[in-house]
Structure formats: structure tokens, C-alpha cells
Amino acid sequence: MGGTVTAVSRSAEHHFTKPNEESIRLLAGLGVEGDAHLGVTVQHRSRVAQDPTQPNLRQVHLIHAELFDELRTAGYDIAPGDLGENVTTRQLDLLGLPVGARLRLGAEAVVEITGLRNPCLQIEHFRTGLLKEVVFRDEAGELIRRAGIMGIVLSEGEVHPGDPIEVELPEGPHRPLERV
């Protein structure tokens, strides 16, 4: 099981979108070097307001490019970095991974998956109607979140578009992703 990195992005400031880069460096226990969400403790402004001492379980944000393909057919022109992700992937079912899955990005970097991104109202301000495309209830009434996954950096390294992604699943019963 694996996929490919199609784009990498970062922003030193808390902006909704992040510009694409030629590469990013993941720092163990911290996140993406030069990104506003870098840190041992939570850096997302809404989470900092609740409790700034929380551990940062959202060091790296990953989204599958197939979501952008689906959104284009729904009339939304979304490109890598537009939804604030650090790593855009292809050919990998990110949303189907369990908590604790590890992704080797390129030669050295390893990210452990902590949970689902819970998109905020900023996504609606970015494109009207987009929030209901990435968060909705299915026929059974279950809340579906499709705006990517979050993780923490276990091993540092450079990540480039075109890098392979290898998946290592955790042992034992797998826990499905929940919002973090």
C-alpha cells in the first residue's frame, strides 16, 4: 500500500491557503519547518484559545488530490495548498487509514496519523458552499469529514513532489480516524 506526494506547501503565517514549495522539511516532534503550525504544543488559533498547553496532534496536514478532482466536478476549482494542507497525495486512501498508521514520505520523513481534520468556517469563506462538500451527514446520519488527515512527525526529512509514500499499519485492532 502506498501513494505519491503530488505537492508540498507551507506558510509562516496563519493564512487559510499555503503556497506550494519545491520541498518542505519535516522536523521530529514539531512539524513543518517554517510553517505557522510548527510546535510541540497546539498552534491552531482556535485550539490555542481553548488550551495552549495541548499537545500538537496537528503538526502536518495531508489531503488526497482525488478530493480536488471530485470538487472540480462539483464546480469548485481547488488546487494543492488551497485548503491549507502541507502535503497533497495521490493513490492513497488517507481517510481509510487507522489512528497510528505511519507514512514514510520520501527517503526519511515519517508521519504518524493522529486523526481527521475538522474543517472550520474559514473553508466556507474561501469558497461559498465548499464546507457542505467536505463535511456532511451520510444516509445513516453519520458525520463524514473529507478535508484531510492530521499527523505528528516521528522522523525528520525533506519531502518533495514525486516522492513515494509507504504505509505501515499499526498492530492489533485498528481504530478509525476521529477529529483532532
Protein traits:
globular, M1 Pyruvate Kinase, Domain 3, MOSC domain-containing protein, 13 strands, MoCF_Sase_C, 4 helices, seven-stranded mixed barrel, 180 residues, three-stranded antiparallel beta sheet, single chain, alpha+beta, Pyrv_Knase-like_insert_dom_sf
Notes on the structure:
The model has no long low-confidence stretch (mean pLDDT 96). This protein is of the alpha+beta class. The strands form three sheets. A seven-stranded mixed barrel has the order 1-6-5-11-8-7-13. It is globular. The chain contains four helices and 13 strands. The chain has helices at 45-50, 65-73, 122-126, 131-134; strands at residues 2-9, 20-21, 24-27, 31-32, 60-64, 87-90, 102-105, 109-116, 135-137, 143-145, 149-155, 157-159, 164-168. The protein has one domain (2-168): Beta Barrel (M1 Pyruvate Kinase, Domain 3), CATH 2.40.33.
What is the element layout, followed by pairings?
Layout: E1 2-9, E2 20-21, E3 24-27, E4 31-32, H1 45-50, E5 60-64, H2 65-73, E6 87-90, E7 102-105, E8 109-116, H3 122-126, H4 131-134, E9 135-137, E10 143-145, E11 149-155, E12 157-159, E13 164-168
Parallel strand pairs: 5-6
Antiparallel strand pairs: 1-2, 1-6, 1-13, 3-4, 3-12, 5-11, 7-8, 7-13, 8-11, 9-10
